[in-house]
Amino acid sequence: MQQIALRASRYPQRLEWQERPWLDRLWDVIATRAHRYFAAAKWRQYWFVRRVMAAQARLESLDTAESRKALQTLRLALRREGVTDRHLAECFAHVRLQTQQVLGVSHYPVQIRGGYLMARGLLVEMDTGEGKTLTATLPAAAMALAGYRVQVITVNDYLAARDAAQLSPVYARLGLRCAVVREDDDEAAHRDGFAADICYCTGKTLAFDYLRDRMALGDRLSTLAMDLDGFTGRWQQNVRLPGLQFALIDEADSILVDEARTPLIIAATADQADVDFYARAIELARALRKDEDFIEAGEQQGYDLTGKGRERLADWCAGLGGAWSHQAQREYAVCRALLALHGFRRDVHYIIDEDAVVIVDEQTGRVMPDRSWEAGMHQLIELKEDVPVTAQRQTLARISYQLFFQRFLHLAGMSGTAREVAHELIGHYGLPVVRIPPHRRSQRANVGRAMYASQVQKWQAVVERCEQFYASGRAVLVGTRSIESAEALAVRMREQNIPYQLLHARQDAEEAGIIARAGQPGQITIATNMAGRGTDIALHDAVRSRGGLHVILTEGHESRRIDRQLIGRCARQGEPGSYEMMFSLEDDLLKDSQAARWLALREHDGLLPGIWQPLAWGLYRAAQRRLERRHRRVRAQLLRTEYRLRRSLSFTGRME
């Protein structure tokens, strides 16, 4: 494996220029698994917790001056001898003591175990509500004291700013500077924030700044060239990051897996989009008839023309000239237009905000106003929705999340739902997954699942269920997959005069207030997704005494992990809570299932009879697994494409 590790330079990182041979990949898997079993052995975790407690007891007997001297001695030892278990235990003791004094809270033993594993380069799975934000302070502070620049990566700017503001006083007591970098901050703020000992930011912000650095540096990666740039001031003017030294990723499965299907691209505005060409493609696509002129392509989630459709398109385009005279080009353009018309749905994949198409992230339910679809798809959807057409973008630099995070010298993470993608995290990032049990035994109750023949019957049953809980004074969280479904349910709730509050991409500004009220007696909250919200739903005492928060899942997502994230909103930290699933055979996951259609067409009065329930749920789980495999193939193909691109660029000398 050709690998360059620039550890002692101005821009430390690990660079891998080519895809690793299969023997190297096999050895990496064996080595990471051995590391997992050695570093993550339970006896070792318990032994480490005892060392931390003993070290803290010694620190508590010191006065302020002696404690500061001990911290300074520890800092020097870390940089001279490395991050050994003995030094790490003392670091954790200092962090735990300062957290108690500043925030009035203390790390639980399970959080110490999680922090230890992350400091050793593992990905920790901790149940939602177990305090992962506080857990992250332990490895972040330890690695910063050891001289590494640390980036704590979260899923959005709000969480990054909140965590940095809350934890900065703790880091300051340890002699560490903490900063936050938001995506919309200016260049000087980015440079200053990343120069801090510990920086909170999003993965997207960090990766785009890395691409900008790569564009600024070009091929000037030698130690001599970087030193000359520092002497002339060019370095200080152009470079934002201190290299890729230690990254600690919150919601790691969301960032490393879910977001890894799309490459990160820096683009400049090109010439105005060929509106006439795209408008003609949409016009032709609208004139084609489904099943007769075009069919769904299935596995690729696109559309393909039939023989009759190709003939009809050729007749319509006769005499048009230009690209329309070439069969391959006109058929590609029309198939893209068919995908825009039928594959992308308003209030599911995007919303219209101030006459602009804004993409919605299904994984988090949030809007992404700074992103656009490539290859003309964004312009086609704008024409479909009759909003102003934006200019296309010309790619200047790109990188995938897989390749970017492989370049960190040290990588660790935490998540509430990572076990389903553990093999992929090891294979792509060398991150073994270790589960940490909850601090208190879970009281979460599964009250059952129900499959309905149609969505109409399902929504009626959901409304009736909410009415029951509203009357009993329980708080309910209803999870939907899309904005469209959430608003359709809201209409039914209004018709039945059931009070509710709505949380989806259109309500991001009111998010904190909505979540604050979600635990009140009789409160019904409808949410598209709760992943990455980063805020616990505080329960009123009356709700707690009546069984806690109840979660209703109304439709399965493309990944079972997202369903688990929603379920994890109830019964946190040992509190009471319950959940149930209410799905239908007409849900999006089963739209291509012939067996589901056959079941739905049979005479059923709402709920499927007991004899058909196991079959229906089996079809649903099979559809989820099929989509998970598809997305896994997409991510693997993206990484292979990145490797091929870099191999080709290596011959031109323009390799990134």
What does this entry look like structurally?
The protein is an alpha/beta fold. It has 3 domains: 269 residues, P-loop containing nucleotide triphosphate hydrolases (Rossmann fold); 121 residues, Pre-protein croslinking domain of SecA, CATH 3.90.1440; 189 residues, Rossmann fold, CATH 3.40.50.300. The chain is built from 25 helices and 22 strands. The strands form 6 sheets. A 7-stranded parallel β-sheet has the order 5-6-4-7-15-3-16, sandwiched between helices. It has a 6-stranded parallel β-sheet with strand order 17-22-21-18-20-19, with helices on both faces. α2 packs across α4 and α2 packs across α5.
Question: Any descriptors?
Answer:
single chain; 656 residues; alpha/beta; Rossmann fold; Pre-protein croslinking domain of SecA; 3 domains; 7-stranded parallel sheet; 6-stranded parallel sheet; 25 helices; 22 strands; 49% helix; globular; disordered N terminus; disordered C terminus
